[in-house]
Amino acid sequence: MKLATWNVNSLKVRLPQVLDWLGQHQPDVLCLQETKLEDANFPADAISAAGYRALFNGQKTYNGVAVLSRAAASDAVCAIPAFDDPQKRVLAATVSGVRIICVYVPNGESVESDKYQYKLRWLAALHTWLQDELRRYPRLALLGDFNIAPEDRDVHDPAAWAGKVLCSQPERDALNALFNLGLQDSFRLFEQPEKSFTWWDYRMNAFRRKMGLRIDHILLSAGLAESCSSGKIDTEPRKSERPSDHAPVIAEFAV
DNA sequence: ATGGCTTGAGTGTCAAGA
After folding, report:
1. Is A137 annotated as catalytic?
2. Which one, A65, A153, A182, A231, has the greatest CB density within 10 A?
């Protein structure tokens, strides 16, 4: 089974690239973040014509997530239970016996911001919910834009980013708490090149200068991680005209 | 230099991203 996640930064703008990518890579599941579309405007017909079913949970202007799958998806959940949040950042569903949880973790803005406190509360609620989900679905994948670089090797300039949002210790502690539930970072199950990132600022030619962060992840429960055969980042779409600032992340495992 | 791009909303210019 091939899973992928991609923060597209507007599905309206990136739809041609997403359709092209689906055709090239043929994933079983593609999770999208920052679709920035109300559900009424979701391009369901174009996705369907490409051979994919779609679940979507969106809003105008900001946020918005979707799960595209070749096989049918069931038991969809569109929010973290018992966490009141108007922002559309979560979509869970079961595909071919695997629980897929697509997340767009809040950015946080800066460690001094109220949005940072919201991010930490959001991550604590996600952790609580995942304890339940893992009990119900031992074969589980948590995919998305986490807005957290797990370690200094996931940061182009660790000294400059030390303690800053996306790299701060409370954020890394929250991510480690997810690892402590038994989830594993599929990318780190394999030997990887140095300076492997998933996001580069649009400004200052950051992509060309390899000034990025690895903040998009595919976490696998033990049952899936043990049969994982590949974990990688596809930087090709970041080189195209009008790219998303994020690259797709891919993980494969035997079913 | 708190900027630099990109998107959406909306038609002037700002919020938000990371």
Report:
1. no
2. A65
Is pTM, for the whole model, over 0.85?
yes
CA of A199, C1' of B16: distance in angstroms: 16
The string of pLDDT tens digits covering residues A133-172 is 999 999 999 999 999 999 999 999 999 999 999 999 999 9
Segment A12-46, tens digit of pLDDT: 999 999 999 999 999 999 999 999 999 999 999 99
- CA A135 / C1′ B6 distance in Å: 41
Residue nearest to nucleotide B4 (CA to C1'): A203
Known active-site residue A104? yes
- The string of DSSP letters for chain A reads -EEEEEE-S-HHHHHHHHHHHHHHH--SEEEEE-----GGG--HHHHHHTT-EEEEE--SSS--EEEEESS-EEEEE-S-TT----S--EEEEEETTEEEEEEE----S-TTSHHHHHHHHHHHHHHHHHHHHHHH-SSEEEEEE-----SGGGBS-HHHHTTSTTT-HHHHHHHHHHHTTT-EEGGGGS---SS--SEE-SGGGTTTTT-EE--EEEEE-HHHHTTEEEEEE--GGGGSSS--SB--EEEEE--
